From TrEMBL:
Matches recorded under Gene3D superfamilies: Spore Coat Polysaccharide Biosynthesis Protein SpsA, Chain A (3.90.550.10)
Signal peptide: none
InterPro entries xref list: CMP-NeuNAc_synthase, Cytidylyl_trans, Nucleotide-diphossugar_trans
GO MF term (any one): N-acylneuraminate cytidylyltransferase activity
Protein name: Acylneuraminate cytidylyltransferase
The organism of origin for this protein: Candidatus Taylorbacteria bacterium RIFCSPLOWO2_12_FULL_44_15c
Length: 241
């Protein structure tokens, strides 16, 4: 029997949100936003350890209230507006490996701004990573035809030109080739990709498709309103978060 993989999930929750102040603990459907990520991670069958990485003591207390583990307060130098995920993840892995005396096989990033991920999204993405032997795996969502790359244009003086791909004249939107973007729900990667190669995605990236009806990355007040509407619609379809 193969050894169980050690997988660390890190919920990254910085305190200095500007677009929506105190976003990570703002109530969505009567529950703090971060609680959705904590709950989904705890239901995963593949994740072995889940922590919250935050620089904010109030976020830490809210996360703990909903079952989250907060083993440290993130250093301020890793909590700036422009701080990338790579050093945040390396700090979390180093701390937890030293604390537990183990070496993880994989790491997973959860952003609280994608609250409608399900445990099957998490485990499906992780399984795709393990099965393919890829460097990383990300959740993907199909792009609506209204925002398809074929429709993207640029201006050269007065001339309208394709931004990246020419749009065949008369092509119906139903016939556009499928295109996807990262859904922001699940990012999974090899531990050594982060710790040894100093990279987040690598060259070999696997994709796991999730439905558009549950895909959102809340960054603006308008997206918050959309998330509230989505939640009500999902509840009518018997989803539980």
């Amino acid at each position: 029997m193969s050894k169980k993989k050690l997988i660390l999930a890190v919920i990254t929750a910085r305190g200095g949100s500007k677009g929506i102040p105190r976003k990570n603990i703002k109530l969505l459907g009567g529950k703090p936003l971060i609680a959705y990520s904590v709950g989904a991670a705890k239901k995963s069958k593949l994740i072995t350890h889940t922590i919250v990485s935050t620089d904010d003591k109030e976020i830490a207390e809210v996360a703990k209230k909903f079952g989250g583990e907060v083993p440290f307060i993130r250093p301020k130098k890793l909590a700036g507006d422009k701080t990338p995920h790579l050093p945040v993840m390396k700090h979390a892995i180093e701390f937890m490996e030293k604390k537990l005396g183990i070496v993880f096989d994989y790491a997973v990033i959860f952003q609280p701004t994608s609250p409608f991920r399900l445990p099957e999204d998490i485990d499906g993405t992780i399984a795709k990573l393990i099965e393919t032997g890829a460097d990383s795996a990300v959740s993907l969502v199909a792009v609506d035809s209204a925002y398809h790359p074929l429709k993207m244009k640029k201006l050269a003086g007065y001339k309208v030109l394709p931004y990246c791909f020419p749009e065949p004249e008369g092509l119906r939107h139903q016939d556009f080739p499928k295109v996807y973007k990262r859904s922001s729900a699940v990012y999974a990667m090899r531990r050594d990709l982060l710790m040894k190669d100093n990279r987040l995605y690598g060259d070999n990236i696997a994709g796991y498709i999730v439905p558009a009806e549950r895909s959102i990355d809340i960054d603006t007040p308008f997206e918050w309103l959309r998330a509230e509407w989505m939640l009500e619609d999902l509840k009518k379809k018997d989803y539980e978060f």
